[in-house]
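#dry-run=false #mode=assembly
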Amino acid sequence: AQSVAQPEDQVNVAEGNPLTVKCTYSVSGNPYLFWYVQYPNRGLQFLLKYITGDNLVKGSYGFEAEFNKSQTSFHLKKPSALVSDSALYFCAVRDWDSNYQLIWGAGTKLIIKP
Amino acid sequence: NAGVTQTPKFQVLKTGQSMTLQCAQDMNHNSMYWYRQDPGMGLRLIYYSASEGTTDKGEVPNGYNVSRLNKREFSLRLESAAPSQTSVYFCASSEEEVLSTAFYEQYFGPGTRLTVT
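#status=ok
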């Protein structure tokens, strides 16, 4: 069965430190992977995606993600965290068993402490 | 461009009442989606529309109906609201086209917070 896992409900990082939010996946076809961010009381915003090409994908707000095929992972990273990065982060992967749909992770709450 | 807009922002219903959530996008996207978001469960797809005039069920369609009124608008209707439908509802759109192999990111509206008592 296809799935996405975000193994951490919450990640705490000190401002200025590097951050990583983890995502692993299982899909029946090519992995088309996405990261979205949700700020409090807002809709989701697209951060970045991996479809094909370089394993390191750069996105909005200084975020990047590393695609690792052997580990079936797509971890979100940022070299230096800001307090304003505090939000809920979702990983998603294309569902090859249905048209135009995504399989969503449960989300990881990122808290950046000053 | 306003992107994806949703109305209303908040709504309180009593069990058994009906209501329609409205969604519109101004990006000329073909595909539109309705999701619900519940704590600890991520997003669950209710219905989607791959093109004007077509709709399909998602993961949790029971208790809901949808209408793709035109390319811009995609509404979600609760015919007889139940407390289990208390949730935050998001509309989204994307560029996907029927039979295309391309796959695009989705753009989300600000959400409707619905409480059913």
